[in-house]
Every structure is written in structure tokens, then in C-alpha cells.
Amino acid sequence: MTTDKRGVSALLLQRQLGLSSYETAWMMLHKLRRAMVNAAREPLRGEVEVDDTWVGGEQAGLQGSRQLKDRRAALVLVAVEKRGHASGRARMNVISDFKARTIIPVLTRNVALGSTIYTDGLKSFAGLVEAGFKHVARIQPLRSELRKGAKAAVPLADRAIGNLQQWLIGTYHGVSKDQLQVYLDEFVFRHNRRKTPAAAFQTLLGLGTGRKSTGYEQIRGARDLNHNRLGFAEATG
Q1: What is the bridge-based pairing of β-strands 74-83 and 47-55?
Q2: Which of 182, 136, 192, 137 is nearest to 160 (CA)?
Q3: Smallest Cα–Cα separation from 200: which of 37, 68, 3?
Q4: What is the pLDDT along the chain (237 residues), one digit of tens a residue?
Q5: For 207-217, b where at least 16 C-beta lie within 10 A, e where not — what string?
Q6: C-beta atoms surrounding 83 within 10 Å
Q7: Among the residues of the chain, which ranges form H helices?
Q8: In the prediction, which pLDDT does 237 show?
Q9: pTM for the complete prediction?
Q10: Which residues contact 7 (CB under 8 A, 6 or more apart)?
Q11: How far apart (Å, rounded) are the C-alpha atoms in residues 100 and 85?
Q12: What is the per-residue DSSP string for 109-134?
């Protein structure tokens, strides 16, 4: 779960441990996911790319990617540090909408003030300068131009989004909207430790011992995830 970029599904864990109950394996993994966020995390800093994405299947009858009403898919905000041409640490969070009043407070809490934030040209990012950031807005090429080799406005964030989508589909074949945040936590945990996978195992053990166990009823109904989740999912070391 900490060292393989594919993670592990509950079905595979059940088989590996010889458990009679799928539910037991599912609960074990969810308890671990809830231990993957370090409360003492450091904010992202320097140059940071930010983008949003939908997670979940298309819903018939809805027009426009920005329409939230009655949509089954979830909206996720993604931030990735730039380290030269490579990616640094990442943060991912489920958000209720993509309005400035939602995303700017999230970024303020999770990116160091004075950092340079790169985005596409959406108006939702217009208040970043007033919030204390340097802001570079780039025009996102059309999909047809991207297929021909045009550079994306935020290529590192787009790459992280692509990897996230492939992982969710490849390992879990999709996840529930209610539980999505902890899957983002898991993805970010491994991403931020991809160069030190052995240390990631020790880190999770340490974080787990410092966290009160989450009960079955809280996990089963995702009751612990449906409040106070505006901060990014991150566990930094």
C-alpha cells in the first residue's frame, strides 16, 4: 500500500491475508488511509501549478463541465510543486464548487504566501494576488491542439490528474464519491514519497500510532469525511 504505485485493493488484500471477509480487508485499508494525513504538514511553496478535475463517470442530461447540480461526479482541486521540469509534492482535495470563495481559502491554508501559482485562465483564480500570491495565468490550448503536441497550461498538475484517474480505474474500477477524499490522501501519500518508498512504510506506522482509531460506523458511512474537509489531503515528511 505504501510502496507500490498501484496500491492494493481490498479484494487482493483479502486473498493475500486469507481473510474470510472482504469487509475486514476493506476496513483495514480505510483505517490506514485515514492515518495518511500528517497534521503538521508543511505548505507547498515556491512555484505551484493548480488545476481542477472531475472524478467520476459522465452523467447523461447535463450540459457543461462546470454544472454541479445533481452531478454524481466529484470536483477535485489539485496542486503540484514545480521542481525544475519535475513534480514536487502534491495536494488533492474534494471541493464543493470551483468558485473563488471556495478555492482561494483552500490555497491560502495549503500554499505558502508569496509562492507563484500557475493556473489556466479561469476567473475563479482572479483573487490570488489579493490573497498574497504571485499569479501566472496561462491560456489552456484546445484539446485538438494538445493532441498535436501543444504544451498544457499546467503540465505537472495535468500529469498528476492523469495518474490519479488511471490509478482509480486500474486498481479500484472507480470509488464512491463519499469516500473519495481518503483515496486522494492515499495517492498523495505515495506520490510525495515515491523516491523513498521504504521510508514511506515507516512514516505510515508512525502516523498511525499517533492517531485515534476511526470506528466502523464512522468509516462505513464516511461520516468522518463529510465535515471540515476544506484543507488539502497531504502527509509530508
Answers
A1: antiparallel
A2: 192
A3: 3
A4: 998 889 999 999 999 999 999 999 999 999 999 999 888 889 999 999 999 999 875 544 555 544 445 557 889 999 999 998 899 999 999 999 989 999 999 899 899 999 999 999 888 998 999 999 999 998 876 666 666 666 788 999 999 999 999 999 988 877 888 899 999 999 999 999 999 888 899 999 999 888 888 888 889 888 888 644 434 443 333
A5: beeeeeebeee
A6: 12
A7: 10-17, 22-33, 100-110, 128-131, 143-147, 155-167, 180-191, 197-209, 216-220
A8: 38
A9: 0.86
A10: 1, 167, 171, 186, 187, 190
A11: 28
A12: HHB-TT-EEEE-S-GGGTTHHHHT-E
Q: Sheet of 134-137: strands edge to edge?
A: 86-95, 74-83, 47-55, 116-119, 134-137
CA distance 217 to 237: 30
Query: What span, in angstroms and rounded, lies between the C-alpha atoms of 105 and 70?
Result: 25
Helix H or strand E segment including 83: strand 74-83
From the list 42, 34, 115, the residue with the least C-alpha distance to 82 is 115
Closest CA to 79 of 160, 182, 191: 160
Q: How many residues does the chain have?
A: 237
Give me Rg for the CA atoms of the chain: 18
Residue that the C-alpha cell 471540515 belongs to: 228
Question: 77 - beta bridge partners?
Answer: 52, 93
At which residue does the C-alpha cell 478555492 appear?
A: 103
Q: Are 99 and 221 in contact (CB under 8 A)?
A: no
